[in-house]
From TrEMBL:
The lineage of its organism: Eukaryota, Metazoa, Chordata, Craniata, Vertebrata. The chain crosses the membrane at residues 93-112. PANTHER family: NADH DEHYDROGENASE [UBIQUINONE] 1 BETA SUBCOMPLEX SUBUNIT 4 (PTHR15469:SF0), NADH-UBIQUINONE OXIDOREDUCTASE B15 SUBUNIT (PTHR15469). This is NADH dehydrogenase [ubiquinone] 1 beta subcomplex subunit 4. It is a single-pass membrane protein.
Length: 135
């Protein structure tokens, strides 16, 4: 009996009752609407146009000293100027910022105070001999 064509992993996959369906195999993900496909095609065309423009500048024998990569410029702008989509001032972020900034200071203050109080109590009870030190 001749074996049939190999089935892809997506066709071989059978959903498990205990495991959710991966996003790659979810029909809502890959069965997109015509508007979605048209928007993806437009984005792909823009990327291809920008890539071609960059390659032309890069391979130009009379290239300028600095070649600007528009994709890299957009990425740098998104990283430096446009911070709110990734980090918004919410109560949770304010609390975490206060904990990270003030928490260690309060912790070390308490640790030093408890150690000093412990040594003072031992000195008063006569159980601690202070070593001689010039510093």
């Amino acid at each position: 009996m001749a074996p049939g064509p190999e089935l892809s992993a997506a066709k071989q996959y059978r959903p498990n009752a205990y495991v959710s369906l991966p996003a790659e195999l979810d029909p809502d993900t890959y069965d997109s609407t015509p508007e979605k496909r048209r928007a993806e095609a437009e984005r792909l065309a823009i990327r291809a146009r920008l890539k071609r423009q960059y390659q032309l500048q890069l391979n130009n024998p009379d290239a300028p000293a600095v070649i600007e990569n528009p994709a890299l410029l957009r990425w740098v702008y998104a990283r430096t100027q446009n911070v709110y989509p990734t980090s918004r001032p919410t109560p949770k972020m304010s609390f975490l910022g206060a904990v990270c900034a003030i928490g260690p200071i309060l912790f070390w203050m308490a640790a030093f105070k408890f150690e000093r109080d412990y040594k003072e109590r031992l000195i008063k009870e006569g159980k601690y001999e202070r070593p001689f030190s010039l510093f």
